[in-house]
Amino acid sequence: MNNKKTIVLAEDNSTLSLLLKFRLEKEGYVLLIAEDGRKAIELIEQHRPDLILTDIMMPFVSGLEVVSFVRGKLKLGSPIIVFSAAGQEEMVLKSFDLGANDFMSKPFSPNELVIRVKRLLH
Description:
Strand order of the largest sheet: 2-1-3-4-5
Order of helices and strands: EHEHEHEHEH
Radius of gyration: 13 Å
Largest sheet: 5 strands, parallel
Shape: globular
Structural class: alpha/beta
Distance between the termini: 19 Å
Strand content: 15-25%
């Protein structure tokens, strides 16, 4: 039986995506990568992941729209960690209002992310 936790990572920076994929898979998680918000929503609908990681600024559909869709339309309770280089207070507050569980400003330490992921999943 496969009891690995699944994570959807929505991030348009491919270098960061690969780094986080490598780091989180090393911890035993299954990672599904979306390069934009539209793809993220598809993956979330298909796989109902245990955790969602999303950047705010992305092509087509923003991270805030992803959070809103997951909480509003899908009624999915999976924890969501939002990250953004635009660490404006307004974005942070909006992401929490929409239902995000945590927020990280870019650049961030992959090790810190792993700790936050473990905290939300265990």
